[in-house]
Amino acid sequence: MAMHGVVKTVFLFALLALRLPCALASSEDQKAIAVAKQNACLGCHASNKKIVGPSFQSVAQKYKKDSNAQSFLKDKIAKGGAGSWGVVPMPANAKLNDADLSLLTSWILRGAPNEN
Ligand code: HEC
Fold this sequence. Notes:
By secondary structure, this protein is mainly alpha-helical. It has a single domain, classed as Orthogonal Bundle (Cytochrome Bc1 Complex, Chain D, domain 2). The protein has five helices and no strands. The longest helix is centred in the N-terminal third of the chain and has 37 residues, at 2-38. It is elongated and about 70 Å long. The mean pLDDT is 91. The chain binds heme C. The site of heme C (HEC) has 26 residues, from α2, α4 and α5.
């Protein structure tokens, strides 16, 4: 029966190890969602449908193969502007600092999980 206990312990550790990255990712998601709410992003964007701006899932899709996407989108979110999705411009978000811009952009490029 001692063997059984060891197997169980190993199994539990394996489960914990697997869950850890998920827990980290979702806390990053929660932080990003809080910043998005504070800055009214979600009034114009949703993860899975177009509102005034494109859905964040379509943004993630569009820039999937673009290695410059992170810096391009950080800059775009800060300065606003039109042209990527149509003629309607996004207003500038001048208050956001670099860390928040990175947080939001990474979350959007992951397809904005957990937004609802
Ligand atoms: C008043 C409505 C509005 C608000 C508020 C808004 N957006 Fe946008 N957003 C838009 C529109 C419209 C576009 C499409 C711009 C274009 O076609 O280039 C857009 C585009 C984007 C894009 C894609 C840019 C590109 O060039 O592909 C990202 C990413 C984005 N918004 C993130 C955000 C974030 C993060 C916030 C909050 C800090 C935010 N938006 C707030 C309307 C808005």
